[in-house]
Amino acid sequence: MAFTKKTVRDIDVAGKKVIMRVDFNVPLKDGVITDDTRVRAAIPTIQYLKEQGAGIILMSHLGRPSGEGPEPELTLKPAAEKLAELTGYDVKFVDDTYGEKAAEACAAVKPGDILVLENVRFLKAEKKNDPEVAKKLASYADIFVLDAFGTAHRAQGSVVGPAEYIPAVAGFLLEKEVDTLTGIFADPDRPFVAVVGGSKVSSKIGVLDHLIDSADTLIIGGGMAYTFFLAQGYSVGTSLQEPDWVERAGEMLKKAEAKGCKILLPVDNVVTDHFGEDAVGEVVDSTQIPDDRMGMDIGPKTTELYCEAVKQAATVFWNGPMGVFEIDQFAKGTEAVARAIADSDCTSIIGGGDSVAAINKFGLADKMSWISTGGGASMELVEGKALPGVEALLDA
Question: Is 353 known to be catalytic?
Fold first, then answer.
């Protein structure tokens, strides 16, 4: 499915200043970046703009600052340094975003220069899409480029704002994300198997509905499986559950049957008496979960069932873990499914969030066809929703 908005290829950037919204929301530990995936993802567009003779001003958020001013532990300086390290480019950083210091630094940007502004969310008005924020950011440049797919679903100042005042186009990452995630549903190679995990049915209701319409097989794991068990009349003990969504889960099972989409639910589970690193797991059938136990992972029979379905797939979309993969003893189901996807010949699309964390934990990133950089954005796209950041760009 072809991208319908203009990209950096469609606009003359030579000698122009470009302000580009990237997603440098990277994990930090003691001021050091522990995963530079998102910085790497922005490099192709940055490289292209530099080669074309543009002056480049980069902006991003990092973490969840209060919006009341600078917070040193959430500065973007480490991201600027990482970009310089990865590219070998001279990357400047200014510890300001909307003030005189930032304005002067942007005014000094020449063709080929790269400048990183401070965290856009140090000002509360950014998240509210305040027009003054948008005007200020737009005033720094001639062209706006959106390449932050991870925030494209948010109508915020640095994501949609500058498009009101200067020409706005997509970067290569945004283009590829949208093309890949919409294309998989437009015309997937079949069998198309979707694997959806995570904690809650309520947070993925639109995604599940859309997948029932398009997938041949829908595999369900994680905490959400227990709400589906309740819909089938099973007891789930102290497992994560959403009683208000039991009826809706039952309707989905009926819809899938009517549509010819095969839904696979766990047939056995690893359960324990409490949540924690020291918890001891035992395997029980899905119909036999004791009242004082909670599900933490899919069991060995389910793992085999799910891996077999994945092996037969031509296309796999995966979003959400099969269990509490952060605790090693309850990560076996998630790891096995991840390895089955990695080892198969299928086109594999990993839909952001915890799935990416799992893929990275197991060292399988290089074996996947596409790993989305945006959790919430990828889910909204899968649901068929329009992304405000993309809608604000110039039509191709």
Answer: yes
Selecting among 295, 299, 353, 389, the annotated active-site residue is 353
Q: Report how far residue 235's alpha carbon sits from residue 33's, in angstroms, rounded to the nearest whole number.
A: 43
Structure tokens belonging to residue 211: 């997948």
Both tokens of residue 198?
């995570």
Q: Look at residues 264, 356, 355, 263 and name the one whose alpha carbon lies nearest to residue 306.
A: 264
* Beta strands across the sheet bearing 315-319: 262-264, 217-220, 192-196, 315-319, 347-350, 370-371
The verdict on whether 276 is a catalytic residue reads: no
Calculate helix-pair angle for 332-343, 354-361, nearest 10 degrees. Answer: 80
99 counts as catalytic: no
Active site residue 299: no
pLDDT, one tens digit per residue, over 38-93 is 999 999 999 999 999 999 999 999 999 999 999 999 999 999 999 999 999 999 99
Q: Exposed, middle or buried by CB within 10 Å (0-12, 13-18, 19+), for 104?
A: exposed
The dihedral built from the CA positions of residue 23, 29, 30 and 36, taken in this order, carries a sign that is: negative
Tens digits of residue pLDDT in 210-236: 999 999 999 999 999 999 999 999 999
**What residue has token string 């796209």?**
381
DSSP reduced 3-state for 354: helix
**pLDDT of the residue at 385:** 86
pLDDT at residue 120 in the model? 97
- Is 373 in contact with 26 (CB distance < 8 Å)? no
- Output the six-digit token pair for 218: 């829908």
Residues in the chain: 396
Identify the residue whose tokens are 């002056």: 55
pTM for the predicted model, two decimal places: 0.87
- Residues 296-300, mean pLDDT to the nearest whole number: 98
Rounded-to-integer distance, Cα 28 and Cα 10, Å: 36
In degrees, to the nearest 5, what angle opens at C-alpha 354 toward C-alphas 150 and 28? 70
What order do you get walking across the sheet with 143-146 strand by strand?
91-93, 114-116, 55-59, 17-21, 143-146, 168-170
Four-CA torsion 114, 117, 121, 124, nearest 10 degrees = -130
Q: How confident is the model over 118-173, as pLDDT tens digits? A: 999 999 999 888 899 999 999 999 999 999 999 999 999 999 999 999 999 999 99
The active-site residue out of 77, 200, 248, 367 is 200
| Active-site choice (17, 38, 82, 121) | 38
